[in-house]
Design a protein that fits this description.
The structure holds two protein chains of two kinds.
Chain A (H helix, E strand, L loop, with lengths): L1 H26 L7 H19 L3 H23 L4 H21 L1 H4 L11 E3 L2 E3 L2 H24 L1 H11 L1 H6 L4 H27 L9 H14 L4 H21 L3 H22 L12
Antiparallel strand pairs in A: 1-2
Chain B lengths: L1 H29 L6 H18 L4 H29 L4 H23 L15 E3 L2 E3 L1 H23 L1 H11 L1 H6 L4 H26 L6 H16 L4 H21 L5 H15 L15
Antiparallel strand pairs in B: 1-2
Helix pairs in contact in B: 1-5, 1-8, 1-9, 1-10, 2-3, 2-4, 2-8, 2-9, 3-4, 3-8, 5-6, 5-8, 6-8, 9-10, 9-11, 10-11
The chains are: A mainly alpha, B mainly alpha.
């Protein structure tokens, strides 16, 4: 039961990540390949605030999310004008730079040694340090993320985003400031990714740079694409399946040295097959343009 | 001591340039980032290791055979993954994502087959390098530089002077027009994949004698190579050489003052600067800006 809940908590954190990436990738059509970097900013911010200054994670989490959003503006502002592949590469590079900072700025992040003993969320005199108490928290955040993003994509603002995805030049000719809208969407995505990162840190209680490898961003892209771009429900489905399914490999009794790369191989194969056979994903409608 | 940094820059720049040459010739015909090129490079190193150390073939046979296998791997990647996507007229981003998929798949396959540990194909005693102007250079490092230059010249001649090169340029400039004059673009793409992947294989084998090999070696390499290709001017053969050397020098002269762990960040900083200020690269033509 505890193990099962643990997997669900991890799945919910990935749901937040893929929902927020879907706003950027699926609804706005921006191929952001560095999403895990914003989770890293959120995680490190609230962990360091709690460890060094004793600031409660309840404050650290929003501060981390805001810093992640600022990171989103900083990388988005210069790179959002780049087209397709180049934007993908620039954001992927940003992911690598954040990873590099986490690894090399030892005075701040303790580098590869990581940050152990991150405190849990305090709650009504106790703290949320068991899977039973943490599960409601991640569930709440996943639901909030879903409903906020649902509201956003169905609003006039969300329709502008989708019009940019469908036909950028038409949106421009309607007098929409395309660059501004893209930047806002990218920043919102970064904000929620920051929340996910912070939730992860205070749950696992240990983070190090390897938690935020650049390739992890591709796994989140896979979750979004697998579930269906431009479908929030699809992201929930995609993240859930792709987090739970590899766990089954454990029960087959494979040694860890084979199971971990095998899981990655399946991810890779899935990406290829999806692109060839069903680029719109399980329940998505939108295809790449 | 300063000269040593310069020399190290030239050496790593030559390897970047060698992989970037293959990357560029493929980019020219297909016009998307073939990210999986990095894993072909790693596979080349492992194929060389298997044929030479595990099976025990002499180098004179094992090296060409490993290069041939790398070329075949490139062809397989194109036939099995990219060709169906081309048939559906998929957009660039789909190719890029599929390419990431291929990369992840093959890199982890290498890890399952060979384990995550570091291997070395070197046998025998380590020889002391030659001293030049206070710097040290080994035989294999000299080989790397010379082979890179020869292959660059060879590829330049292939593109500029041969019929195949002409066809590659035609497909690169205008695939539809190329088709109307009877150029089989599928075949040209296959040739560019085989030539490009063979170059990646050669680079992998060379580097395996210089440093050691591990399954994840392709990741760092392909990132640097994409940066080198963009910095030099994407798709340009001369640009690959210039970009590769530029990046190698920038990284190695950079860590003269800064910790070596920041190499990757320096490289990506350069990329982002170039994308913002000179997206067509050092040697690229201004007109290409519209496509970026």
């Amino acid at each position: 039961m505890e193990y099962f809940l643990h997997i669900l908590i991890i799945a919910e954190i990935y749901i937040i990540l893929s929902l927020s990436l879907n706003l950027v990738l699926g609804f706005t059509g921006l191929p952001a390949f560095g999403h895990i970097a914003f989770a890293a900013i959120g995680a490190y911010t609230s962990s360091l605030l709690a460890l060094n200054y004793g600031i409660s994670p309840w404050i650290g989490l929003p501060v981390g999310a805001i810093l992640a959003a600022i990171g989103g503006i900083l990388i988005g502002f210069p790179s959002i004008r780049l087209k397709g592949d180049y934007f993908a590469l620039a954001t992927f590079g940003f992911g690598l730079i954040v990873y590099s900072i986490a690894k090399n700025w030892v005075e701040l992040t303790r580098g590869p040694m990581g940050l152990p003993g991150i405190p849990a969320f305090p709650f009504l005199g106790g703290s949320l340090d068991s899977v039973f108490s943490y599960f409601p928290l991640t569930t709440a955040f996943a639901l909030i993320t879903y409903f906020v993003l649902k509201r956003i994509v169905n609003s006039p603002f969300g329709r502008i985003l989708q019009s940019i995805r469908e036909d950028e030049i038409a949106a421009l000719s309607m007098g929409k400031n395309v660059t501004k809208y893209k930047l806002i969407a990218f920043t919102i995505g970064a904000f929620f990714a920051g929340i996910a990162g912070s939730l992860y840190a205070h749950y696992i209680t240990f983070i190090d740079p390897t938690s935020f490898m650049p390739m992890e961003s591709i796994a989140i892209v896979l979750m979004v694409v697998f579930g269906g771009m431009g479908s929030l429900e699809g992201s929930i489905l995609g993240a859930t399946i792709l987090v739970i399914f590899p766990e089954l490999l454990r029960f087959v009794g494979l040694p860890d040295a084979v199971a971990a790369p095998l899981r990655q191989m399946i991810y890779g194969l899935l990406l290829i097959v999806l692109m060839i056979k069903r680029p719109q994903g399980l329940i998505g409608k939108y295809k790449f343009k | 001591m300063e000269f040593q940094f310069f020399l190290n820059g030239i050496i790593s720049g030559s390897i970047y340039a060698l992989i970037a040459l293959g990357f560029s010739i493929i980019y020219r015909t297909v016009k998307f980032f073939h990210f999986a090129h990095g894993v072909v490079y790693a596979a080349g190193a492992y194929l060389g290791y298997t044929l030479c150390i595990s099976i025990g073939l002499p180098q004179i046979i094992s090296v060409p055979l490993a290069v041939l296998c790398s070329a075949i791997l490139g062809i397989l990647i194109d036939k099995l993954c990219y060709s169906p996507l081309r048939a559906q007229k998929s957009p660039n981003l789909v190719f890029l994502i599929a390419s990431f998929g291929i990369f992840i798949f093959l890199q982890n396959l290498l890890q399952i087959l060979y384990g995550a540990q570091i291997l070395s194909p070197r046998t025998g005693l380590i020889k002391e390098g030659h001293h030049i102007l206070g710097a040290v250079i080994t035989d294999i490092q000299i080989t790397i530089i010379v082979v890179s230059l020869i292959l660059f010249l060879g590829l330049w001649l292939l593109i500029q002077k041969t019929k195949l090169g002409k066809a590659i340029r035609a497909v690169s400039d205008d695939p539809v027009a190329a088709k109307t004059v009877g150029i089989n673009s599928e075949r040209i793409i296959l040739s560019s994949f085989s030539v490009g992947s063979a170059l990646a294989g050669i680079a992998g084998i060379l580097i395996s004698y210089e440093t050691n090999i591990e399954p994840t070696m392709g990741f760092a390499a392909i990132l640097k190579v994409m940066i080198a290709a963009i910095v030099g001017g994407i798709g340009s053969i001369t640009g690959s050489l210039v970009g590769g050397l530029f990046l190698g020098l920038a990284e190695n002269l950079g860590i003269w003052k800064i910790q070596s762990g920041w190499k990757d960040a320096i490289a990506f900083g350069i990329l982002i600067l170039f994308l913002l200020l000179r997206p067509q690269g050092i040697l690229g033509k201004k007109t290409e800006k519209e496509t970026i």
